[in-house]
Write a structure and sequence with these properties.
The chain has 2 helices and 13 strands, in the order H-H-E-E-E-E-E-E-E-E-E-E-E-E-E. It has 183 residues and is of the alpha+beta class. Strands 1, 2, 3, 4 and 5 form a 5-stranded antiparallel beta sheet that branches. The longest helix has 24 residues.
């Protein structure tokens, strides 16, 4: 019977190791986002994007009030969770939903304990092809444009705190300034 117990323990250890190895090899999916946010209120209605961008897994999803961008991280079991760089379960930034139709784009900026700043929004005007964000006084960074079917978003991350007032500029493909949040 001692041999049977050792055999069962060995089989359980092999099974658990295989499970953990398999889980840690998996990329996140839309179902993983729905699972990670299943207890959130209001509930997640749609996942627009799950993609690895600049070495980090990001997701864009919406509920009845907002569209959010979040960073994904695997826990020790290999399940994907929404975590910021400081290890807290929270999104990086969000913008209002549904978007007002009279705007060029929606936007928000958020600082994470002044270590990182995030700029995120939905592009509503289809002639906007480039977004720049002021990340330091008089210094602009081009935001990443993310296209997911019909929806277009922009995202920029910088070190340090938000520059106030938040200055986001939108340009056409010819470089014409279409809109700026700072006049």
């Amino acid at each position: 019977t001692m041999k049977k117990i050792l055999l069962w323990l060995a089989l359980i250890a092999i099974g658990l190791t295989a499970f953990l190895f398999y889980n840690h090899q998996q990329s996140p999916t839309k179902d993983a986002i729905l699972n990670a946010t299943k207890n959130w209120s209001p509930a997640t209605e749609e996942v627009y994007l799950v993609s690895e961008i600049d070495g980090e897994w990001l997701t864009i999803f919406k509920n009845t009030h907002s569209i959010m961008i979040a960073r994904l991280e695997q826990n020790w079991l290999g399940f994907w969770k929404i975590k910021d760089e400081l290890g807290k379960e929270r999104t990086l930034a969000s913008t209002s939903y549904p978007a007002p139709q009279d705007k060029e784009f929606t936007w928000s900026g958020r600082s994470n304990e002044d270590k990182y700043s995030y700029y995120f929004g939905q592009i509503l005007n289809p002639t906007i092809k480039k977004i720049e964000v002021e990340t330091e006084k008089n210094s602009f960074k081009e935001a990443l444009i993310i296209r997911t079917g019909e929806a277009h978003f922009f995202f920029a991350k910088s070190s340090g705190k938000l520059v106030m007032p938040i200055n986001i500029r939108a340009f056409s493909d010819t470089g014409e300034l279409i809109y700026s949040t700072v006049k």
